[in-house]
């Protein structure tokens, strides 16, 4: 079991996704933006023109933060950085792939479900 200090300060959700998904979650109240020279935010809006490097950088920053407990990412966005998603093994923040309005969820692509199937020998 992980030490309590490894998860007790993880108060935020983060999201990397398309405009509709991010907007909906921000309206639900998950948005957090810090001020100052090192301003950070816990969300990234991705469109077809967004470069993969920007998505990778956001993923790396959000998964290294100690105040984020869960990172939600649209599955079609996760496909663009699949190798990073598959290499990510830390328990916190938990990375969960979610569907979007225009892209249905495909359980065969989900990295968490792939790991569960592998664990059970399927």
Q: Features of this protein?
A:
122 residues; alpha/beta; Rossmann fold; four-stranded parallel beta sheet; 5 helices; 4 strands; 34% helix; globular; ATPase_V1_fsu_sf; membrane
What does this structure look like?
This is V-type proton ATPase subunit F. It is a peripheral membrane protein. Pfam families: ATP-synt_F. Keywords: Hydrogen ion transport, Ion transport, Membrane, Transport, Vacuole. GO terms for molecular function: proton-transporting ATPase activity, rotational mechanism. The protein is of the alpha/beta class. It has one domain (4-119): 3-Layer(aba) Sandwich (Rossmann fold), CATH 3.40.50.10580. It has 5 helices and 4 strands. A 4-stranded parallel β-sheet has the order 2-1-3-4, with helices on both faces. Helix 1 (19-27) links the parallel strand 1 and strand 2. The longest helix is centred in the middle third of the chain and has 13 residues, at 52-64. The mean pLDDT is 88.
Brief summary:
34% of the residues lie in helices and 17% in strands. The chain has helices at 19-27, 52-64, 75-78, 82-87, 111-119; strands at residues 12-17, 43-45, 68-74, 94-98.
- Top CATH class: Alpha Beta
Which structural category do the helix and sheet elements fall into? alpha/beta
CATH fold name: Rossmann fold
What CATH architecture do you see?
3-Layer(aba) Sandwich
Assign an overall shape. Answer: globular
Give Rg in angstroms. 15 Å
The major beta sheet can be summarized as: 4 strands, parallel
Query: Helical proportion?
Result: 25-40%
Strand content: 15-25%
Element-by-element helix/strand order: EHEHEHHEH
CATH level-4 homologous superfamily? ATPase, V1 complex, subunit F
Total number of helices: 5
Spatial strand sequence of the major β-sheet: 2-1-3-4
The chain-level mean pLDDT equals 88
Number of strands: 4
Tell me the domain tally.
1
Distance between the termini: 26 Å
What ranges have pLDDT less than 50 throughout 5 or more consecutive residues?
A: none
């Amino acid at each position: 079991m992980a030490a309590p200090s490894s998860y007790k300060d993880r108060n935020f959700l983060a999201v990397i996704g398309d405009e509709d998904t991010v907007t909906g979650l921000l309206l639900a109240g998950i948005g957090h933006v810090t001020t100052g020279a090192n301003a950070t935010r816990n969300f990234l809006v991705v469109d077809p023109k967004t470069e993969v490097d920007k998505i990778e950088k956001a993923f790396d920053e959000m998964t290294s933060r100690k105040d984020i407990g869960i990172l939600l990412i649209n599955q079609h966005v996760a496909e663009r950085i699949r190798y990073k998603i598959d290499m990510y093994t830390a328990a916190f923040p938990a990375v969960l792939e979610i569907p979007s309005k225009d892209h249905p969820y495909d359980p065969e692509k989900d990295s968490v479900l792939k790991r569960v199937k592998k664990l059970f020998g399927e």
